[in-house]
Design goal:
By secondary structure, this protein is an alpha/beta fold. The chain contains eight helices and eight strands. A four-stranded parallel beta sheet has the order 2-1-3-4, sandwiched between helices. Strand 3 (78-81), helix 3 and strand 4 (108-111) form a beta-alpha-beta unit. Helix 6 (209-218) crosses helix 8 (234-241). The chain is elongated.
Amino acid sequence: MSQTETQPLRFAMYLRYSSEMQNEISLEEQEAVCRRWVAGQAGRIVAIYRDGAETGWTLDRPGLVQMHREAAKGRFDALIVWKFDRLARDPNHAVIIKAYLRHERGLKLFAVEGGSADDDGSVASWLNEQIYAVFSALYSMNLSVDTKRSKYHRATEGRFNGSVPPFGYILVTAKTATEDRPPGLYIHPREAVLARRAFRLYATGEHSHLTIATWLNAHPYIRRTRAGRQPFGKEMVRDMLQNRHYTGRVCYAETHYRGTLGEGKRSNRKHKVWFDGRHAPIVD
């Protein structure tokens, strides 16, 4: 890496962790190894961008989007990542991102593990980066297949696949489970009453999604527990009233993305497969 004695390279750091279902290095560990690497190069860290629990199959990630914006402003000279697959799981996406940052933004790109063509600019360094990219792509495809198989199996066994429970339920994870309370969805006594009431109001035919959202937001319990959080909107109420988890079911659905670069998720409402769940229903 070329560097002047008077002006060290200004480094940005990009960190990403996929989800608790994958045994990946944490954001804190990634930051620690990246800091050590930059210190060894006598560089200077000027920005850190983080995406926690964000899949690498889409580019619609807050940290990545912010990094692109500030790269356009010339805030840093180089980017350091733990591995290049932090930028994107899809190898085609990774190639596009790296080419854009290098050629359009003039950045040098480095990885703590895997090597980079910018290490010394040699053909060997370029080849080393490509070889690691191929192995990373194979790992990602195999991981995707295994994850889908695992989620489908969980659904057939009646187990909840999500990380955020529907309003009215409590999610007990493997980390918080006890012998008397295994992992799964459990009814939240206070919220379940409100969720059931929302279904009954809609069933009368006299209330819309908007009026039910207004009623929920005006309730003292909702005002107290959701202070500082997004209030109920008509879309949230619509999704709640169409959510079959409330009838004691669980689903499996693959995630699909819009656009060539995965710009956002597509709705999977019509592509869900439902199974009898282990949890108690809130409505019949």
